[in-house]
TrEMBL record:
Domain 14-3-3: residue ranges: 5-247
Protein family membership: Belongs to the 14-3-3 family.
Protein name stated in the entry: 14-3-3 domain-containing protein
Origin: domain of life: Eukaryota
Lineage: Eukaryota, Sar, Alveolata, Dinophyceae, Suessiales
Residue ranges of coiled coil: none
Length: 252
């Protein structure tokens, strides 16, 4: 379908309802490549499309990676391990392709056209997220490069968010949530992760009573995720060796 912008947005919503996220990605790519800035609804559809498409592959990679380690520990035959390894590499190739695809659109189209602080922070957060996803399975120099790219994008987004968005803004809170997960999972810096989460939570809590009911609900939902992660990570730091996957409350 060549379709107009409105038709592509409609089809993206339809694909989302049908849980056909690969189709949703294709429709929202067309919207993003039209050349004009996305509105709030389009921005969220673009984000959801890639999050779902990449999220299923991240889950697949974790499952296969865990199996590979278990098979290696059980001293299974080389032939079995080779099969698992080749399948992991297949999933990694798909993950790499999807992440690179969204990062190119962000770099070429969306970030340069961001016309507000909110959209700039939103896209820089996405840039940080997808470099983080690449870092999750990368090794060696590639891991270091992707990790640093993620950090720099999150840091740039944070500087804009702190100076130009209120502490209770959902985009600012979501950024703090994901940046803290990055510190914990990728940079292995639980202290920084906890400090960032607590600061974002405390700053928002200080002005929550000024919000209307709808805004309060939106902010409170993200703040609960910050609090959940903070509780989990604090527990892990106090009980070494009992690490639980901090990704359970990462993305919005």
């Amino acid at each position: 379908m060549s379709g107009t912008r409105d038709e592509c947005v409609f089809m993206a919503r339809l694909a989302e309802q049908a849980e056909r996220y690969e189709d949703m990605v294709e429709y929202m790519k067309r919207v993003a490549l039209i050349g004009t800035e996305l509105n709030l609804d389009e921005r969220n559809l673009f984000s959801v499309a890639f999050k779902q498409a990449v999220g299923s592959r991240r889950q697949a990679w974790r499952a296969v990676n865990t199996l590979e380690k278990r098979e290696a520990a059980a001293s299974k035959g080389a032939a079995i391990l080779e099969l698992v390894q080749r399948y992991r590499e297949k999933v990694e190739a798909e993950l790499n392709g999807k992440c690179r695809e969204v990062l190119k659109i962000l770099f070429d189209e969306l970030i340069p056209k961001a016309g507000s602080s909110e959209s700039k922070v939103f896209y820089l957060k996405m840039k940080g997220d997808y470099h983080r996803y690449l870092a999750e399975f990368a090794t060696g120099e590639t891991h270091s490069k992707c990790s640093q790219e993620a950090h720099d994008a999150y840091q740039s987004a944070s500087e804009t968010a702190i100076s130009e968005l209120p502490p209770t803004h959902p985009v600012r809170l979501g950024l703090a949530l994901n940046f803290s997960v990055f510190y914990y999972e990728v940079f292995s810096s639980p202290e920084k992760a906890c400090l960032l989460s607590k600061a974002a939570f405390d700053d928002a809590m200080a002005v929550m009573d000024r919000l209307d009911e709808d805004s309060y609900k939106d902010s409170a939902a993200i703040m609960q995720l910050l609090r959940d992660n903070l509780t989990l990570w604090t527990s892990d730091m106090q009980s070494p060796g009992s690490h639980t996957d901090g990704l359970i409350a990462e993305d919005l």
